[in-house]
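Recall the central idea of this unit: under ordinary conditions, the amino acid sequence of a chain determines the structure it adopts. In this exercise we apply that idea directly, starting from the sequence alone.
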Amino acid sequence: MEKLAIEGGLPVRKTKLYYGHQWIDEEDIQAVTDVMRGEYLTCGPYVAKAEQALEKYTGAGHAVAVSNGTAALHCACLAAGVGPGDEVITTPITFAASANCILYCGARPVFADIDRETYNIDPDSIAKHVTPRTKAVIAVDFTGQAAKIREIRKICDKYNLILIEDAAHSIGTKYEGRMVGTLADMTCFSFHPVKTITAGEGGAILTDDDTLYRKLLLARSHGITHDEALMVDAPHEGSWYYEEISLGYNYRMTDIQAALLESQLQKIDSFIARRKEITKQYNEAFSDCREIILQKEIQESNTCRHLYIIRLDLEQLDCTRRQFFDAMSAENVQCQIHYIPVYWFPYYRQLGYEKGLCPNAEEIYHGIMSIPIYPKMTSQDVEDVIHAVKKVIENKRR
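Accordingly, the structure predicted from this sequence is:
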């Protein structure tokens, strides 16, 4: 048995491997450089080009690029008409922004529990939480696997709810043969550096609905329009004239970000292919480890994994998750935890949320851990991760 690095043994790797990392090549650098040498840094032509590229890739009717994924979620809530007195149902196993965007609008997040096998929001739990105050559902595609959109859509149609898909993890995933971005009333992407493609930061909302599209444009840019057809005081005074017709925000994407995004989109198929290769290797390597429970995937989802989650069966291990995590770090494989249930945070407790709301989410949280997955990983990197996981298991097996 190999001695663990945390106990004085040699680590699996000499250098640290992190759970996620961007892939930037010379074409990306050149795209950004071209903007820096041009006439516009923001409010120029590259944002429209990036939006058109997103529309072409996904098949969505409209794309609205924004400054980050959180801004995308906020704009979607605004376009959905979410406001004080409303409730919006979402999952607790997500980044805080999926719920914070509801609070930004003065509404109340309602947390539905997750499926014990997929870790995505459970449609049955959604249905149980619908009230006369429910305005929308924000379904998160956790790790990149599409939520059960067909079942969730039936609930939304029954109760006249807006369906917002938080697809921060799932660009490139297909559900029942259709690309994520075309499934919900509005779909929100994130382009943070650890995501499948990056704009440095950045986000986008996709929709096929013309009315929602116009609301999204206003929400992104201070509620200001140059479109005379939308103006209250038309005819306007001249070509310089504009009106603020609603309360919006400064959520614009820069041309610098947009140029990087468009360049990254040209490589997305190769990024997806590599993520699928790594996922397959992990699935095969860990399928016979009784100490690990693997996330199940529904057959409707052709998934591009943003995260690869292992769930430790702590009854089979003589250690805590923290001890397993620290042992992996000592082997120079840096894991991460995705996510702490949102309503556990002190801020949410101040709002009256208590532990115990979502038993499945809370139980599963205690064992989950994200291991490295990103396209720039070499075959040796992947083998090192597998080696490290199995090394720790071997030493900590009951």
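The mean pLDDT is 97.
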